[in-house]
Write a structure and sequence with these properties.
Elements: H1 2-16, E1 20-24, E2 27-31, E3 52-56, E4 69-80, E5 85-93, E6 99-102, E7 107-109, E8 111-113, E9 119-120, E10 124-130, E11 138-144, E12 156-157, E13 160-168
Antiparallel strand pairs: 1-2, 3-4, 4-11, 5-10, 5-13, 6-7, 6-12, 8-9, 8-11
């Protein structure tokens, strides 16, 4: 192929004594017959980083008796978000309230308490995460049961639902 191109260039230069213009797959190159093999091309390079993150929650949480407390840690790793965006985490109980229910149908309410010792209500935003260096990448919570709410022995269960969303920061 190189010999054929050089042969064609020689024929064109004999007749025109000037530059040869050649189109090669959407790029325009100008070849000078006096400067063999010199060419330059500009190629656009794209790099797309989608919003990504790894969100970690425990598989299960055990409430200790008689302390009536348990802990839960939620964590965000490897987050790559657009500038001025963050991750918000809402938490709610399975039936839209924080309440344990036994197989017999008995119930015991519980509270989710954040690191500032404030109660997080079911369905509320429990944590926000950003890519800022100062932003914590993990949040710890306590689940507390009040002794006065315990009436019957038994095995009580609930499910916590974590709703994770990427939002524009205000």
């Amino acid at each position: 192929m190189k010999q054929t191109l050089l042969s064609k260039m020689a024929i064109v230069s004999i007749f025109t004594f000037s530059f040869l213009s050649l189109r090669v797959s959407a790029y325009e190159m100008k070849l000078n017959t006096k400067e063999h093999g010199s060419e330059a091309r500009e190629v656009k390079v794209n790099f797309n980083i989608p919003d990504t993150y790894t969100f970690t929650i425990p598989e299960s949480i055990d409430i200790d008796y008689p302390s009536l407390e348990g802990g839960v840690c939620i964590k965000v790793d490897n987050s790559h978000l657009q500038k001025n965006y963050g991750i918000s985490v809402k938490v709610k109980g399975k039936n839209d309230e924080f309440k344990f229910i036994s197989n017999e149908g008995n119930s015991i309410p519980y509270k989710l308490i954040d690191e500032g010792n404030k109660e997080v209500t079911s369905g509320a935003i429990a944590a926000n995460f950003t890519n800022e260096k100062e932003s914590p990448k993990e949040r710890n919570f306590k689940i507390k049961v009040d002794e006065k709410d315990i009436l019957y022995a038994g095995n009580y269960k609930d499910s916590m639902v974590f709703d994770i969303a990427v939002n524009k920061l205000s």
